[in-house]
Design brief:
Number of domains: 2
Strand content: 5-15%
Largest sheet: 4 strands, parallel
Order of helices and strands: EHEHEHHEHHEEHEHHEH
Radius of gyration: 23 Å
Structural class: alpha/beta
Strand order of the largest sheet: 1-4-2-3
Shape: flat
Number of helices: 10
Number of strands: 8
Length: about 260
């Protein structure tokens, strides 16, 4: 029997009880070591499970059939952080899945830059009849740099961090390489980027909770730990206070939503 068991969000202690019981009944345990980033070493996984854990790299996971062969007569556990390669594994396909890890700033830049390219293609076709128009229909809306961006890092771990800013600030930081106004708030992987729709008042209350407790200081040099509230990084407005800039950031996001939807 082959058991495909997902690990927790941050540490091996987050694994389900059913998953742990299955591991302890297995004769062989393999750990996926390439489709995502493990926040703890394989030795810790082995010590927690009470089993020898073997690392399964990219070639072993997607090309070698050893796990499938062993599972025909014995119990085998395959510990995964994400499931991107399971279809290839079960069908014994020699296909390498490309890595898709990036920082939130990289994701924001790529999203906005792709929208600019698409818009420019349609503008060129509209202005010059000799330019061939794109085959696909033009999108009805484009993501605006003023849209909110909620950045998460190492969710569920003791060092998790959250940042609330705009897509434009994130992408500009990557484009210019200027980090003077964008301190290392998120730090190491894994990162997640959320581009929200219309926010409920309670969601805004949480995201802007630093203001509710009177923490309106603009000094962001203190990297938050896992118990910190979201860090706020609104656009710079010389004539406005920090609180006013945060409120304007949320108002602008909702203004864009009401205009485009």
């Amino acid at each position: 029997m082959l058991y495909v068991i997902g690990l927790g969000l941050s540490t091996i202690e987050d694994i389900s009880i059913a998953g742990l019981n299955a591991i302890q009944e297995c004769d062989y345990v393999f750990l996926d070591a390439y489709t995502s980033i493990l926040t703890h070493g394989i030795e810790k996984v082995s010590a927690f499970c009470g089993k020898e854990v073997r690392k399964a790299d990219r070639e072993f996971t997607e090309q070698d059939s050893l796990m499938i062969s062993l599972a025909k007569g014995e119990n085998v556990a395959f510990l995964v952080i994400k499931e991107k390669s399971l279809d290839n594994l079960l069908h014994d396909r020699d296909i390498y899945e490309p890595p898709r890890f990036m920082l939130c700033s990289e994701a924001a830049y790529q999203i906005l830059e792709a929208g600019c390219r698409i818009r420019q293609r349609f503008m060129d076709a509209s202005a010059d009849p000799d330019v061939e128009a794109p085959c696909e229909p033009e999108p009805e809306i484009y993501l605006h740099p003023d849209c909110l961006a909620i950045c998460l890092a190492r969710v569920g771990s003791p060092t998790q961090a959250m940042l609330v800013t705009t897509m434009g600030i994130l992408s500009t930081t990557l484009l210019t390489g200027d980090t003077d106004n964008h301190p290392n708030i998120l730090s190491g992987p894994l990162h997640s980027l959320i581009i929200p729709g219309k926010l409920h008042p309670m969601e805004i209350e949480f995201l802007a909770a630093r203001l509710l407790i009177g923490d309106g200081k603009e000094d962001l040099e203190n990297v938050p730990n896992g118990t910190s509230l979201p860090v706020l990084l609104p656009p710079t407005k010389a004539s406005r206070s920090f609180r006013e800039r945060v409120e304007a950031m949320f108002d602008r996001h909702h203004e864009l939503l009401s205009t485009n939807f």
